Structure formats: structure tokens, C-alpha cells
């Protein structure tokens, strides 16, 4: 029987090796926690699944590990190139979001500004592996960076589409996300130092950060809550993915970032409950936050709060105010 990919990834002494699998393929460990399958199938889709960029977001790690096991034991046919990354191994071992520095702020070259942080070296390594994975690809280039959120959300499952600069949004991919059970998509309008922005920008992948529910420790996840993404990914990997039904996106709420709440000083006060859910509506006229003389007031009644976090250091983003958006 194949050893658990995840257990192997987490074992500090595991050598990099090629594993022969029951289906005749090889799993190649390219770096600790990074395993590639079907490398030479260049005409098929090239799919990167990353998980554990935040080490305590365990459900996607379990879902991906189970998929790898099923591929290895011939229960799931693999009809694409696949690269899986268990990203922040130290944080996964410790059950924490990150050790020194939030890894999902260190991509897009930002690792060079934090030379001391172990997460920075790892982000640089993951960038390189992603680039060499996608570089020869002739089929679709897809990257799903799988997360769970710290807090509850009015939309339990949502996706973040990184800023695309001049590229149009891929409606087929948005429709696919909707079939996965994704309930809303934030269309980012500025560059970010996230993994999905990096692969979108540098590898020209259709890349998304997927927030799939609430973060819980290993063994405490109700994996049935992840069945939508699990099944959709399995169909994608096995080539059983059906084309979108007319790519009808009318049922998928889209949002864009209107502005960031920037914490400029320790006087910053966020006037939302500590446990406020992501995508909570901000009533017209509501005082969202204040920081000395600066007051952030909700306008129009359709704005919503995303990723509120007043505990960040001054100078950093303490939340995003989003508003409904439409595709061009
Ligand atoms: Zn995360």
C-alpha cells in the first residue's frame, strides 16, 4: 500500500524520491511537500493544487491527500499533469497559521524583503516550482490555492480571483467554481503578494484562492462539507469534467474590492463585532472604523466587510470593503 502522501510530506527526514504507483505513473517528490504526477502529459491540463499555505487550514490538506491516495491506488484516473504542494510544512506540523510571517503575503517576489523569515525561502521555492511546472504546458493552466477562513462567512465558500491586469475573466472557470459550490467571487482590482496572484501574473494560469469554510484542527473537519470541491476536482483530474452549462453566471454573486481599511495608528477602532462574518452587509451610513481623524463610513447599503482584522500592525490592511460587481 502507498504510504500517505501527507505523512511523507510532514516527515522531516523523508528523502526526495520517485514513487512508482499502482496505475503505472510515478509520483516525483520535487521538494519537501511538493509532488508531481504525469509530468510528461504536456497536451493535457496542467493543474496545481496548493494547500497548507496557512498551516492550520487542515480540511483542504486532508481532501487533497485523499485524492492523491486514490490516484496512487487506481481509484481515481489521472488525465492531466498534476502538481500538489503542501505549502507551509512547519506551520502544518505545529497546527498554526504561520510561524514568523504570513506566507500568503510573500509571493510575487515579496519574499526578497523578508530574507530572515523561513516562510520567505519556502515561498521563493514554491514560486520556482510553479513556474517550471507551467512553463512547458500546452493545455489549460489551472491553479487552485485551497484555504479555509478564520471566521464565519455569509457566503460559506467563496473564491478570490487575483487582479488580471489586461486579461479578461475566464467565464468558463467562474462557471466551474459555481459548480464546485463556490457561492461568491471577489474580483481583485490590484496586485497582491498572494500565491494565486503570482501564478496568474507570472505563469498565466487561471488561478484562484478558494476559501472553503472554517479552519479547524486535523480530525475535527466535517469533510462532507467539502464534497462539492472534492467531487469537482476529482472530475477535473480524471477528465470527466463537463463543459459549463452555457456558462450562466447569473446565480454567482460577484464582488470587487472598493477600498482597504488601513490601520494607520494604534488609535484604529473597528466598529464591528469581533466575530462578524465575512461578507456581512454594512448598512448605509454606518461608521465602520475610525483612526484618529479618519472615519470610514458605509455608503449605499450594498457594501460588505471582508477579512476584518483590527489586530494587524499599523500600516497594514485591517479589512476590505467590497461592493457588488459585474463582468465587463
Ligand atoms: Zn488561508
From TrEMBL:
The keyword Kinase does not apply. Residues 44-236 form the Succinylglutamate desuccinylase/Aspartoacylase catalytic domain. Keywords: Arginine metabolism, Hydrolase, Metal-binding, Zinc. HAMAP family: Arg_catab_AstE (MF_00767). SUPFAM superfamilies: Zn-dependent exopeptidases (SSF53187). InterPro entries: AspA/AstE_fam, AstE_AspA_cat, Aste_AspA_hybrid_dom, SuccinylGlu_desuccinylase. Its EC number is 3.5.1.96. Zn(2+) binds at residues 54, 57, 147. Gene3D superfamilies: Zn peptidases. The active site is at residue 211. It catalyses: N-succinyl-L-glutamate + H2O = L-glutamate + succinate. Signal peptide: none annotated. Its cofactor is Zn(2+). Transforms N(2)-succinylglutamate into succinate and glutamate. CDD domains: M14_ASTE (cd03855). The keyword Hydrolase applies. It is an enzyme of class 3 (hydrolase). The gene is astE. Pfam families: AstE_AspA_cat (PF24827), AstE_AspA_hybrid (PF04952). It comes from the Bacteria. Belongs to the AspA/AstE family. Succinylglutamate desuccinylase subfamily. Pathway: Amino-acid degradation; L-arginine degradation via AST pathway; L-glutamate and succinate from L-arginine: step 5/5. Binds 1 zinc ion per subunit. This is Succinylglutamate desuccinylase. Residues 252-324 form the AstE/AspA barrel-sandwich hybrid domain. GO terms for molecular function: succinylglutamate desuccinylase activity.
Amino acid at each position: 500500500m502507498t504510504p500517505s502522501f501527507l505523512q511523507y510530506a510532514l516527515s522531516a527526514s523523508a528523502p526526495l524520491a520517485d514513487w512508482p504507483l499502482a496505475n503505472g505513473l510515478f509520483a516525483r517528490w520535487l521538494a519537501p511537500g511538493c509532488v508531481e504526477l504525469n509530468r510528461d502529459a504536456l497536451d493535457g491540463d496542467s493543474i496545481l493544487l496548493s494547500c497548507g499555505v496557512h498551516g492550520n487550514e487542515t480540511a483542504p490538506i486532508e481532501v487533497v491527500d485523499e485524492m492523491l491516495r486514490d490516484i496512487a491506488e487506481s481509484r481515481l484516473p489521472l488525465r492531466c499533469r498534476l502538481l500538489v504542494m503542501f505549502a507551509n510544512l512547519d506551520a502544518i506540523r505545529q497546527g498554526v497559521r504561520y510561524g514568523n510571517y504570513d506566507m500568503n503575503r510573500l509571493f510575487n517576489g515579496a519574499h526578497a524583503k523578508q530574507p530572515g523569515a523561513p516562510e520567505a525561502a519556502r515561498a521563493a521555492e514554491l514560486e520556482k516550482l510553479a513556474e517550471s511546472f507551467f512553463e512547458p504546458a500546452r493545455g489549460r493552466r489551472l491553479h487552485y490555492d485551497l484555504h479555509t477562513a478564520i471566521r464565519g462567512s455569509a457566503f460559506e465558500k467563496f473564491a478570490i480571483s487575483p487582479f488580471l491586469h489586461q486579461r479578461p475573466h475566464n467565464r468558463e472557470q467562474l462557471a466551474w467554481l459555481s459548480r464546485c459550490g463556490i457561492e461568491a467571487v471577489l474580483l481583485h482590482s490590484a496586485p497582491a503578494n498572494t500565491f494565486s496572484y503570482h501564478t496568474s501574473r507570472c505563469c498565466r494560469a487561471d488561478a484562484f484562492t478558494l476559501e472553503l469554510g472554517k479552519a479547524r484542527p486535523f480530525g475535527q473537519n466535517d469533510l462532507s462539507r467539502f464534497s462539492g470541491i472534492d467531487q469537482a476536482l476529482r472530475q477535473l483530474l480524471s477528465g470527466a469534467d463537463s463543459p459549463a452549462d452555457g456558462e450562466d453566471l447569473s446565480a454567482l454573486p460577484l464582488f470587487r474590492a472598493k477600498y482597504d481599511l488601513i490601520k494607520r495608528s494604534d488609535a484604529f477602532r473597528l466598529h464591528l463585532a469581533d466575530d462578524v462574518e465575512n461578507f456581512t452587509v454594512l448598512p448605509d451610513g454606518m461608521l465602520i472604523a475610525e483612526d484618529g481623524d479618519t472615519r470610514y463610513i458605509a455608503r449605499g447599503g450594498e457594501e460588505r466587510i471582508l477579512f476584518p482584522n483590527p489586530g494587524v500592525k499599523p500600516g497594514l490592511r485591517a479589512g476590505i470593503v467590497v461592493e457588488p460587481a459585474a463582468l465587463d
